[in-house]
Amino acid sequence: MYLAQREPWSVPLQMVGLIAQELQSQGVAVEDYLQGSPLCPQDLATPDKPIAYRQMLELIRRGVTLSRRAGLGLDVGRRQTPAGLGVLGYAINCCATARDALLTGAKYHAVASSINRLALSEDARHAYWIATPPIDLQEALPFAIEEEFSAFCRNSELLTGKKAPLVEVHFTYDAPAYVYRYQEAFDAALRFNAPTNQIVFDVGALDLPILQGNPLSVAHGVQLCENFLANNPSTDDLTLRICAMLLRTPGVFPPAEEVAASLHMSARTLRYQLAQIGQSYQAIVERLKLQLSRDYLENSPLKVEDIAWRLGYLDARNFRRAFKAWTGVTPSEYRRTG
From CA 50, how far away is CA 57, in angstroms rounded? Predict the structure, then answer.
């Protein structure tokens, strides 16, 4: 289910530049790629310059059409490096562990060129890197997920010096005709037509140290990201910040007043700003609980009682009632048919 129908966040031009580089390597001129867009080749010299989300989608579709090799997103993702992520890359490089780096990347994804919402979840055995487009991307969806997951694998190795220990990779769409390229890129079990786009990997990898980690500079990197978002506001940035905050404390869903205080605003202001974008704090919490509960039921052996506890329910019966209200089935029924 897509969570927003209005214009999402603006996207830095970095992604356009990477697509242009890949197409050039295939013999496609930059001028041909940008034809019909409001951009010229000189614009790519300023990768931090933002463009509208839907303009980015049009450029992705054109790139896929012009590409002489199927799976353009896989190739573009391999071109992503932390250094190319601008201020977000700096903040990630300063983090102490892979967990910190992923949480930072999820919170400030709009600072870089991601066209997905990102989230990190974990249980006793596995971690889950989840990518959710904010609108229906239609034919651009495979590129969006290919690029995201290919970049994840590339940057995990660059940041920690070790390949991410993938277990499974899930995609919400049909297997493409070039599925062999997925097998080469991810070297893990592939699941198509899945409920969620996610990478499942060994939870122990979250504790790997970042090779260039510098905890003293983390605050500076985060401030740079905050400054970027302040100068390039998006209609859904507040929702993203709330979700990122809640994901940092699994099982704890504080009242709106506490979240508002953490965001340096009053509860009244928080409610007003959320109403302006058609949201409410409780709706955000419920959506996040639903997403996490589905992930646990589909991808972990946890008992329903343990899942309920991880979602902040002291009584598993309350979780069962809530889950049935969300989905129409009980958690056990969902697990059997999932």
Answer: 13
**Sequence letter at residue 68:** R
- What is d(CA 77, CA 208) in angstroms, rounded to the nearest whole number? 22
Q: Which residues of 245-267 are buried (b: 16+ CB within 10 A; e: fewer)?
A: ebbeeeeebbebeebbeeeeeee
From-to residues of CATH 1.10.10.60 in the chain: 283-337
Is 181:74 a contact under the CB 8 Å cutoff? yes
Q: Which CATH class is domain 283-337?
A: mainly alpha
Residue 39 host element (H or E): none
SS3 132: strand
Contact 271, 281 (CB under 8 A): yes
Cβ atoms < 10 Å from Cβ of 309? 16
Beta bridge partners, 129, equal 120, 199
Query: How far is the C-alpha of 333 from the C-alpha of 295, rounded, in Å?
Result: 15
Closest CA to 140 of 173, 92, 181: 173
Full strand arrangement of the beta sheet holding 117-122: 117-122, 126-132, 197-202, 166-170, 189-191
User: Average pLDDT for consecutive 10-residue bins of the chain (338 residues)?
Assistant: 54 91 97 92 82 90 97 96 79 90 87 86 93 92 97 94 94 97 95 96 95 78 71 59 71 86 84 78 87 81 88 90 92 85
Task: Tell me which amino acid residue 272 is.
Answer: Y
CATH architecture group of domain 11-207: Alpha-Beta Complex (3.90)
What gap in Å lies between CA 200 and CA 50, rounded to an integer? 31
CA distance linking residue 259 with residue 266, whole number of Å: 9
Q: Distance between alpha carbon 108 and the CA centroid of its chain, in Å? A: 10
The burial class, CB within 10 Å (0-12 / 13-18 / 19+), for 104 is buried
Residue 130 and residue 29 in contact, taking contact as beta carbons nearer than 8 Å: no
Burial of 168 by CB count in 10 Å (0-12 exposed, 13-18 middle, 19+ buried)? middle
For CATH 3.90.1520, the residue range(s) in the chain are 11-207
